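cron nightly-structures :: item 1 of 1
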Amino acid sequence: MDSIVQYILNRSKLEISHIKITRATKETFYMAIECRVTDTGPLGATLAPMTVDMVGPKGVFGRVDLPEVKTKSSGTDVSMPDQEIQIIDMEAYLAFTESILKDEELTVTLDNGKGVVKALMMSANIIYRKEVRIKGMNGPKSEFVSVTPDGAGYKAEVKVHNPSPIEIDMGTTIWEVQTEDGKKLSEQRGRVHINRGETTYSVIGTIEPGAAAGSAGKLVGIGTEEDAWTNESLKILSVPFALPAEYTSLVKA
């Protein structure tokens, strides 16, 4: 019985529709997941709650509690409530968030889950291991929506394009707008919660004295005001960033 159930479980699919990462601290975050389980066979079964390792490109970074799942032949929607996750390996976790932010696709593995499946009045012990492919944010691509003068600096709206099912609250972010060869043009700050799809956020910018801008540049993450892991994650971001005339007219040598 155990080997048959394990075989069916191994062939099943887990499709992620939404992951929300919020409330970052130096050692923790909160995560909620919505997903769908399919290809579990013609008979319904109940998979008992269990704890699994979350494994990214550099190994295990945390553990998550999975709820009870009652499978159906047509597939089952599963909602994992918001829960606090302790980061057990920061290097592994930062590699995972880097993959989320920069890659077109990433792989996360739920591993080492020891559980019980009940079906047909019988129980089977299983080991849960499921590799899941998820679209990444691929940058994420960003652009100025509007730029207006504000004293010696400016106020602006920035749009972020996120094709991933993952959303992250990055906190109060600090960015540099740079030339393509890395010369600082300005620094801008604003609170950023990267939602699925498109997100527009507000920033206040200060212009670097003596800077001169062309029409192309890049947006580079410097850190966050909060003392959290997001401070390190933001530093890996550097994306092409078009500089409209409203911006370049303010940045003059």
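cron nightly-structures :: done
The first strand starts at residue 13 and ends at 22.
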